[in-house]
Structure formats: C-alpha cells, structure tokens
Amino acid sequence: MKTAEEAELCFPQLLNSSCKKTRLLPSVSLVFHLTLSSISLLTVFLNLLVIISICHFKKLHSPTNILLLSLAVSDCMVGFLISFQIVLIDGCWYLGDIMCAVYFILDYVITTVSIGTMVLISVDRYIAICYPLHYPSKVTEERAKMCVSVFWMCSILYHCVLLRDNLQHPGRYNSCSGECLVFLDYIGGVFDLLSSFICPVTLIILLYVRVFVVVVSQARAMQSRVAAAALQGSVKITAKKSEMKAAIILGVVVVVFLICTCPYFCATLIAEDAAVSSSSVVFLLFYFNSTLNPLIYALFYPWFRKSVKLILTLQILKPESCDIVMV
C-alpha cells in the first residue's frame, strides 16, 4: 500500500526525484476533467464539420473559405491538444520528455497559425471592401492556398528553430521527474511575443477599423441610392451587401478571437514563470475560442447549416453530392 507521501508523487518509484502532484479536491478535479473533455470533443467535432464542408462541396471553394479551412484545421488540432492538458490537471506529465517538447512546439505552432490566419482573413476583407474592383484578380483560390501553405510551413520551421534546444535536449530544464517545461531565452521570448501576438493583433485591429469605416460609408451611400437603383444597379448593390455581410461575420470571428486570446497572453506576460495553469479561467477561455468559431459560422452562414445537415444525414455519400449548390 502507498504511503501518504508516495500518493502525492507523480512517480512513487522515484521517491527522491519525482515531482509532487497538485492538490485538488476530488470534486474540483472532476469538474476540470469533464469541462476540458467536453471542450476537446466538441471542438474536434465542430471543426471537422467545417473541414468536411469546405473540402467536399465544390461551391464552397473560395479564397475566403480556404482561410476559414486553415482556421478550422488549427482549431481542430487545438481540440486534440486539450487532451494533453487533461493529463496535466494534477500537475504531472506522464508522456516523457520528448513528447513534452513536441507538445509545446505544436502548441506554439497552432497558436501562431491561428493568429496568422486571422491576419490573412483581415487582409482578405480589407481588399474585398476597400478595393472591390481589384479583389477578383488579386485574391484567387490558388493564391489563398499558397499563402496558407507557406504560412504553415514557416510557422513550423520558425518554432522548431526557436525551441531547438528543447528538441535537442528534452527534459533538460525539468527540476524533477513528471515536470514538463520548455526554455526560451529572453531575446527569443520578446521576439516571439512581438512576431506572434503584438504585431499581428495590431495589424488585425488597424485593418478592421479601416474595413468598418468603409462599410459604414458604403452602407450610407447605398441607402441613398436604393430607391433610384435600376436593375443593373440593384445587382451591384446586392453584391456589395454580400461582401459587407461577409466582413461583418468575419469581424465577429476576429473580435471573439481577441476577447478569448488577449487575457491569456496578458496573464502569460504577468506570470513570472511565463506559464498559465491549465485550470485557470483565461486558459479555458483561450482554448474555448476554437469551439466558438464553428458556432459563429452556424449562426451566420446558411451554407454551413445546410452542409452540416447533408453531412449528418450522410447525403454527402451520394454520387455528385459535391456539386450541390450551397448558397
């Protein structure tokens, strides 16, 4: 039978070198396990629906939806990463030092890709609203795919280089067995904060401020011309309304993203050890953003609701279902 001291250790067989477990009431531990497990499953399920929808239905293959696909892939991976945080609830890491390093690199990469995709979405809406005549020629499906692919590859390479010491010497900075830490020097940390959060968020805010200034001015101009619009003019106005609606919907996605992520990064800056507990509210809010994005699509996008219905009823298995008109 284990002694009281052994019961508090991550690895009782390593009595002198094992880390101690975080003491949590059984009820509190159960709540955190259930909450994280629910968020994880829901995040993976909802984002898989987005991924299947955009990949399967040809009518959804647009530059904007390619960016939403990239965001859904990163959000889906967040759902899988939450399962690692469930392991860490008691403060112990049981998966080894190499998996610890891989986990942190994936976490850094996915976070950076999510923020970078938000920047690309902001740029997409900026061009569509502010330069509508140039949008079809400047923003194409192939260019969107290229931008997304390059960004994913650069993000993976960048963080592998930034955290290379942790990959070369896994577990080097752990003070005891059962701990999962990565080391990032001061200069690297400041550069990563600037390149992965402060600069992208600043750019997102500036672009969307400009977008909504133009949206408001266009809305007022359209209202004054609606009564006298001819048939051809009505088509143009409808097209403009469609672009404006897309800008507003994606603006909601961006605002929700900032609300969910900013508290986490602020808490990380304030924390002396640059770490935020997996049981903290800001941490749960940070990961819950990946669950919210598909819910926003379901609320505002008719094509997503229709595609979900087709997926859940297995109608996508029918021949030529990929050619169904979604809008």
Describe this structure in words.
With 327 residues, the protein is mainly alpha-helical. The protein has one domain (31-223, 231-323): Rhodopsin 7-helix transmembrane proteins (Rhopdopsin 7-helix transmembrane proteins). The protein contains 11 helices and no strands. The chain has helices at 4-7, 26-56, 63-87, 97-130, 135-138, 141-162, 164-168, 186-225, 231-270, 281-300, 302-312. Helix 3 runs parallel beside helix 6 (141-162), helix 3 (63-87) packs antiparallel against helix 10 (281-300) and helix 8 (186-225) runs antiparallel to helix 9 (231-270). The longest helix is centred in the middle third of the chain and has 40 residues, at 186-225. The relative contact order is 0.13. Residues 272-279 have low confidence and may be disordered. Pfam families: 7tm_1 (PF00001). It comes from Fundulus heteroclitus (Killifish). GO terms for molecular function: trace-amine receptor activity. It is a multi-pass membrane protein.
> What class do helices, strands and sheet pairing give?
mainly alpha
In the CATH hierarchy, the third-tier topology is known as Rhopdopsin 7-helix transmembrane proteins
Shape: globular
Which CATH C-level class is it?
Mainly Alpha
- Count of structural domains: 1
User: Overall mean pLDDT score?
Assistant: 79
- Helical stretch count? 11
Query: What is the number of beta strands?
Result: 0
Q: Order of helices and strands, N to C?
A: HHHHHHHHHHH
Largest sheet: none
Radius of gyration: 23 Å
Please give the share of residues in helix. Answer: over 70%
Report how far the terminal alpha carbons are from each other. 64 Å
Strand residues, percent? under 5%
* Proper CATH architecture: Up-down Bundle
* Low-confidence sequence ranges: 272-279
CATH superfamily heading:
Rhodopsin 7-helix transmembrane proteins
